[in-house]
Amino acid sequence: MKDGSGIAFLLDKEDLLHDLAALIGKLKRYFPTTSKAISLPISAKLQYAREKEDRAAKDMEKEMVVADVEAQTTEKQEAPLSIFKKSNRPVTLKFEDVVYKVKPKKGGFLKNSKSEEKTILKGITGMVQPGEMLAMLGPSGSGKTTLLTALGGRLNGRLNGTITYNGSPFSNAMKRNTGFVTQDDVLYPHLTVTETLVFTALLRLPNSLTKDEKAAHAEAVISQLGLHRCKNSIIGGPLLRGVSGGERKRVSIGQEMLINPSLLFLDEPTSGLDSTTAQRIVSTLWELANGGRTIVMTIHQPSSRLFYMFHKVLLLSEGNPLYFGKGEEVMAYFASIGFAPSFAMNPSDFLLDLANGVASDESREDEDPTVVKQTLVSAFKTNLADKLKAEVQETGPCRQDGAEDKQFARWSTTWGQQFSVLLRRGVKERKHEAFSTVKIVQVLVVAFLSGLLWWQSDITNLQDQIGLLFFYSGFWGFFPLFNAIFTFPQERMMLEKERSSGMYRLSSYFMASAFSDLPMELVLPTIFVTITYWMAGLKPNAVNFLEALLVLLYSVLVSNGLGLALGAVVMDQKKATILGSVIMLSFLLAGGYYVQHVPGFIAWIKYLSISNYTYKLLLATQYSPNEAYPCAGNNGTCLVGDFPSVKLVGLDRQVLSVAALAVMFVGYRLVAYIALMRIGVTRK
Ligand SMILES: Nc1ncnc2c1ncn2[C@@H]1O[C@H](COP(=O)(O)OP(=O)(O)OP(=O)(O)O)[C@@H](O)[C@H]1O
Ligand SMILES: [Mg+2]
């Protein structure tokens, strides 16, 4: 079989078979009635040819796979770092009778309370041992991602059945020993490939490695995944051109490979890649599995070469298992229950056809897809289900290593390290947005415009000056609120991904994101006040100016906290924005400037209003209680404190306002923190 002419002959023959199959397909399309008569004798010949060569082709394909992997491995064996060596702690994954149900949510006011429950996974059993690679196949919507998420311990809700990892349920230690590559890549668009991987390395790799060693790991992964050419390009996103989709996918895979996980889940790692790159990635995974790791992936359309690399295959159809077992035995199994392809074809194509209820067998051609699927489901139940369950239960509890468990149960880095890495990453990622030209221009335009409108106003026009102070509190209530509202909803996916892999504490993330926003939050209002204050001719005195600036910055921080809390609680940008504008408008209305005679039953609302406190403090920076201003009656002078819109808020008891704002400053952030605690919590 090894001589060249034999292979060439075989390949020619295989090509010929494919051509004949295509021809039959075409004939069927053009002559629907005669096609059967034509196809039968040809298919009989094909069947004969197939039987004779099937075994030989399979053997050869396997040889090719091994040769291929070996060829690709030689290059990687030189990788100096431990990532590609043996697994730290082998994991046997078992799952029995996994059932998952959802109640579809219906949006809007017209909710149908009797929405029907949908069963997405209908009792799936299986086992993957260290050194094995399981591929889940099935048509779109068959439940692959759902099952993968459940196995990865990330599916909340109505999940029944048992999933064990070395005989025990999912734990924090397992979380840090597991890699999970999601179907959609969740990456920061403004970071480069290297930055992304280095930040991940700094956060996820243990402290026994130095910073440089962690960076070297990231480099090793870059070369392993062939990302050299794009290592300094930014990742990009829907609105920002960055690296290609396939490169992005590889970065996601790299992030998980970095930690040398013993259990690796990948959702469609090869989708969107050309067959050579797909081959390369699966070879890398094959190699990782060979090092004693357990690998589970979903995959669409693997080529037949890839197919034979999988140690185990799970075929799903609408949440039902149709096959679980060795990849090389799958064709024999389906042949034994009467489903054999009428010509040589890629086994994965054949399996997907079956899962869709399309039998490529001539005799079953006219069968209804639902009937075919039903037949396959019951065949699985009678032939494989019991055997599989017995096998899963038979394999006794696996090695438990308490000491290693403890090592994984801890955070891999200290709070301070997490904070500093997250802060640097946050600043890098958000500086583009925070200091966007649009925002700066927006603030400058408003600043100059109000400076001109209030040009050198003086105390004779007290109403105008007070109007400006109230405008300060209004504008700088809304602006930071809307900036902050987007922070957490935008980061939700990232937080979910990173928290569910146990990358950092929520507190370090929270502090880092609060601090990384600070520069922008404080610089813009400072510029604004500096421009308007002097243009509008408020008290020309450094002390008064600094007081006004400090009050405004303080209120900006409080509004910012409110925005963070709203974003974190609602977790939906649109809804949070609407809610935010309603709340801020109520605060403004209750601020004490627009309406002085408020009915008692609603007067309490001013105690909740940030604008009310800010307005009061701003007034105090400009006027003292016994300061007078020129007015019409009363000997030509009146007390500022008696001016209607000042009198209501008063020029005394500023300490109370400062304290009230302090309570809000802390309170809103606390609410945000508590709301975030629900994100990325994994099933235990
Ligand atoms: N939370 C949910 N609410 C409603 N339906 C859901 C939910 N989760 C999953 N589904 C449904 O369950 C089915 C399986 O979804 P899943 O994402 O697992 O499919 P898949 O096999 O990964 O498909 P694809 O190959 O397209 O990624 C789909 O029909 C999906 O609409
Ligand atoms: Mg999917």
TrEMBL record:
Entry similarity comment: Belongs to the ABC transporter superfamily. ABCG family. Eye pigment precursor importer (TC 3.A.1.204) subfamily.
Superkingdom: Eukaryota
InterPro entries: AAA+_ATPase, ABC2_TM, ABC_transporter-like_ATP-bd, ABC_transporter-like_CS, ABCG_dom, ABCG_transporters, P-loop_NTPase
GO molecular function, one term: ATP hydrolysis activity
Sorted UniProt keywords: ATP-binding, Membrane, Nucleotide-binding, Transmembrane, Transmembrane helix, Transport
Protein name per its UniProtKB record: ABC transporter domain-containing protein
SUPFAM superfamilies: P-loop containing nucleoside triphosphate hydrolases
Membrane-spanning segments: 434-455, 467-488, 509-536, 548-569, 576-595, 655-676
Topological relation to the membrane, as annotated: Multi-pass membrane protein
Keyword match Protease: no
Compartment(s) of residence: Membrane
Residue ranges of domain ABC transporter in the record: 93-343
Recorded GO CC terms: plasma membrane
